[in-house]
Amino acid sequence: MASARPALTALDSVILSICCGLSVATAYYNQAMLPLIGESFAVSSAHTGQVATATQLGYALGLLLFVPLGDRVQRRHLIMSLLAGNIASLLLCASTGSFGAALFCSVAIGVTAISAQIIIPGAMAWVEAEHRGRVLGLMVSGLSAGGLLARTVSGALGHWLGWRGMFSVAAALDLLVLLAIATRMPRSEVSSALPYGALLRSLWQLMRRYPPLWRSALCGGLLFGALNVFWGSMAGLLAQPPYGFSTLQSGLMGLSAVVGIACASTLGRLTRRYSLTLSCLGAGLVMAAFVALEFAGQMAIVPLVLVAATFIDLGNRANQLAHQTRVLALQPDAVSRLNTVFMMVYFVGGALGSSLGAAAAQHYGWPGMAVAGGVLAIAGGLCSATFARVR
Fold first, then answer.
1. If residue 333 lies in a helix (H) or strand (E), which one and from where to where?
2. In a domain, 360, yes or no
3. Within the chain, which residues score under 50 in pLDDT?
4. Residue 190, in any domain of the structure
5. What is the CATH number of the domain that holds 215?
6. Residue 1: its pLDDT value, please?
7. How many C-beta atoms lie closer than 10 Å to residue 39's C-beta?
8. What domain range is 315 assigned to?
9. What is the pLDDT of residue 191?
10. How far apart are CA 319 and CA 277, in angstroms?
11. Is 2 a domain residue?
12. In this predicted structure, what is the pLDDT of residue 79?
């Protein structure tokens, strides 16, 4: 039956990768605007970092609650419902008048920003096994472009329109994604008839059945946590002397993702033969980047900060592709649930990194941020190396 299905066209792949980027961007728009959000509510940088943490935790919760349904219901309808909820959450956040309400809205934004994690398994189901690394690389390129859009464009529009105006623009972009999904997302085959409760319980069963699932999720979460240590504290650190960067200037740091986006397809192809080696190399790149940030931050060497940001993004991308490609191949009729476990742990790691980075940067500045990120990168590298030996 699988062979009778039409292959995903190149145009559909590109459109869906763009949808991935725009949908996940809503979980990152706040990162470059954290100083603006803090100023509007008169809270400290450490407390403002809770906005990014709340969004990441909401994303992990959304993965748990909704992504498993991709194996049980029509994915296109599920994605459209989530996008509608995300639009409402963004508009509510843009109009809130208290910091507590902004935190609640941030959780809601994260919960409903998970469409990409339903799109990706859906697209992979229409691709032959030998091409999955390449297509996943394209989808991750879309996700990375979403991060680039979120951090760069939100920095610019936040500077001109304020953070509330940026969230309103994000809602309008979500509407365009909803229309694209309605017209271009292929109909999915329902692969599970399990009730919702049993579907959630099956996540634990999958982890017990496939040790590489939780191992890969742990490795990915640690490296993503390291990346969010940087992005959760970067805007606040660059706003301080001797930098004095505006939100617009900090947002331009997001251009560091261009290199990783350009390399994603190549990295995706390499995962088929060198997955665990690639993950270890990615962790090494991230660790080296945080060592560089220790010197660049205190000596105000902006080009070195940009290079370090590039290495952090590239290393995290290599690590994610290596582990996620392996995970999605474990059981083809459960790709949504496999992706749920992987990405849920992944974003819990991201939330930990955001919170840790904001706290370390407030108390210890650039050295604190560098140590926090370096520790997570080392832990991720050690895990990947250990699991490579027990493969």
1. none
2. yes
3. 1-6
4. yes
5. 1.20.1250.20
6. 38
7. 12
8. 7-389
9. 65
10. 9
11. no
12. 94
User: For 370, how many CA atoms within 13 A lie in the half-sphere containing its CB?
Assistant: 16
Residue 96: DSSP 8-state: -
Q: Is residue 1 part of a domain?
A: no
What's the pTM?
0.77
Residues, the chain: 391
Q: Which of 218, 198, 187 is nearest to 123 (CA)?
A: 187
Classify burial at 304, counting beta carbons within 10 Å of its beta carbon; exposed 0-12, middle 13-18, buried 19 or more.
middle
Q: Cα(6)–Cα(103) distance, rounded to whole angstroms? A: 44
CA distance 288 to 167: 34
Burial of 41 (0-12, 13-18, 19+ CB in 10 A): middle
Closest CA to 380 of 230, 264, 217: 217
Cβ neighbors of 333 (< 8 A, separation 6 or more) are 71, 191, 192
Domain count, the chain: 1
Q: Which of 143, 151, 92 is nearest to 118 (CA)?
A: 143
> DSSP labels for 223-259?
HHHHHHHHHHHHHHHHTSTTT---HHHHHGGGGGHHH
Q: Please answer whether residues 81 and 136 qualify as being in contact, where contact means their C-beta atoms are separated by less than 8 angstroms.
A: no
Confidence at residue 370, expressed as pLDDT on a 0 to 100 scale = 94
